[in-house]
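Batch manifest, entry 17 of 40.
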Amino acid sequence: MKTDQNGYAKAIIVPTLTVRNGIEAIAFYQKAFGANVLMSNSGPDGSVVAEMEIMGARFVVADRSEEHGNFSPEKLNGTPVRIGLQVEDPDQVFELAVKAGASIIYEVADQDYGYRLGHLSDPFGHHWEIFKPLVT
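Output type: structure tokens
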């Protein structure tokens, strides 16, 4: 395991987005965010699990599996988690996501708390905050 200059282990959090249609979700994330598929597996029932990345940020997309306790935001009528995607040009990435089918919660704007940030919902119910710090 890699460590930082103080000897602490470096950890990477890789969220799994549970969706109702993995194939459609993969296509959406590719179109909306330019995501790449790193690995993909399909089950005999057509369910899919894929590891993806957006500009180096990894995440997993998996079809819902209620028998294993994996519910999509649509099934739960919402999501308790927002995904923050820090990019160089949040306006451009936000616009691409909306063109690909995301719904605007609020437009990209300079926020009082130091970020240029917009909030949207993807077609599968996951919330994304697209942002960059105003001061680097």
